[in-house]
Design brief:
The protein is mostly helical and about 375 residues long. The protein is built from 17 helices and three strands. It has a three-stranded mixed sheet.
């Protein structure tokens, strides 16, 4: 099982209840410290006993509800939670697959996935956010507009894909041991950074090799049959030194058939969006589509990118009219990885600081803004010849 560190990181920087982003450098350092602490407790130390699933959500369908799922599958969901922290990941994967099949039995869903994301805390208290992600058949075309699975076997450009794999493995080890240090870097996106001596050679290789092989890396991103290779290419393209090239390539990758690749692409775009000149290179339309993609991981990354794209009147208008309902649906979730970023987007949209649980206030603001748009359209029609 692969831990989605990106989803956890993005959740943590988008759940400030006051909606204030604060100083980015201090926030970044604090996040890193918390992440290192979490990794060295929750992922290293298995739980001695089963911990009940504290949060459970269903997204994408009214055919399932949390109360019924807890009544029918509660014991197995609790067991799944305890298995998450075991060193042997195979039992977790087997039970998750079995649970997914049983939960979806008798329903004509186009997609169903049981997603588990850890929160923050010591190993014996960290909450697990569990979401049953569903796409109903009638929504498949809208919510899963993905390309066909690629079948190519392109060569590894300059050995960069292999080197990225080694970089991730080394960085993950340093993170788990608490020895990672600063993850800042000069690329468009930083995963583990290159400050640690064990990582510094990778940074030099990527900065030198990616610009020379960017077209071949783009070919890997678009055609390689292995999702891991495509995701590595997406991360590597953050080293092109050409923000426009990277933005175009990764916007296209949002529609990759693998959520692993989509996650990587939107993570890079989300970090690029922190810089206004780079945010201007990211079209908002694909991100608004991705806000309602199938998995909690998709939606987390789409929301954490969207929050940088709503500053303009056009971005604000498009977000309210295209994604207002989805933002409210995610704000009502119990699980954090979608609720927190949805709240942050609403804060940036509105300038308001209503709490995450103040659903009535947020719905009122959205309704009021939509009504103002309707009045403006009516006035424009009345003034037209």
């Amino acid at each position: 099982m692969t831990t989605d560190y990106a989803a956890i990181y993005d959740h943590q920087i988008t759940t400030n209840p006051s909606c204030a982003l604060g100083d980015r450098s201090r926030t970044f350092t604090a996040i890193l410290a918390c992440l290192v602490a979490l990794v060295t407790t929750a992922w290293i130390t298995p739980r001695a006993a089963a911990e009940p699933v504290r949060t459970l959500d269903v997204y994408g369908t009214d055919e399932l509800d949390v109360a019924t799922l807890r009544a029918e599958f509660g014991a197995d969901l609790d067991r799944l939670a305890s298995l998450y922290f075991e060193d042997d990941r195979e039992p977790f994967g087997e039970l998750r697959e079995d649970l997914t099949e049983r939960i979806g039995a008798g329903h004509d869903f186009a997609f169903i996935k049981l997603s588990v994301v850890p929160g923050w805390g010591a190993a014996d208290t960290v909450p697990l956010w569990t979401t049953v992600d569903v796409v109903e058949a009638e929504d498949a075309a809208r919510r899963m507009p993905f390309r066909d699975e690629p079948t190519g076997t392109p060569a590894d450009p300059g050995g960069l894909i292999e080197r990225w794999t080694e970089y991730e493995r080394t960085g993950n080890g340093l993170m788990r041991s608490g020895n990672l240090g600063s993850i800042r870097c000069d690329a468009l996106h930083c995963l583990h950074g290159f400050a640690h001596p064990d990582l510094a050679p990778f940074g030099e290789e990527f900065d030198r090799g990616v610009p020379a092989h960017r077209d071949e890396l783009l070919g890997v991103l678009r055609s390689d049959a292995e999702p891991g290779h495509r995701a590595a290419a997406a991360f590597l393209l953050a080293h092109t030194r050409d923000a426009e090239f990277t933005a175009v390539a990764l916007t296209d990758a949002i529609f990759d058939p693998s959520y692993v690749v989509r996650n990587a692409a939107m993570r890079v775009l989300g970090q690029m969006g922190r810089t206004p000149e780079y945010a201007a290179l990211i079209p908002i339309e694909p991100i608004l589509v991705a806000v309602d993609f199938p998995t909690v991981y998709d939606r987390n990354k789409a929301l954490t990118t969207l929050r940088w794209l709503v500053a303009t009147p056009e971005g604000k208008h498009a977000t309210v009219t295209r994604a207002g309902d989805q933002l409210m649906a995610m704000l009502r979730l119990e699980t954090g990885p979608n609720r927190g970023p949805a709240h942050q987007v609403l804060c940036r949209l509105s300038g308001e600081e209503f709490g995450e649980r103040d659903h009535a206030a947020w719905q009122g603001w959205l309704d009021g803004y939509a009504a103002s748009l309707d009045r403006a359209d009516a006035d424009a029609r009345a003034e037209s010849p």
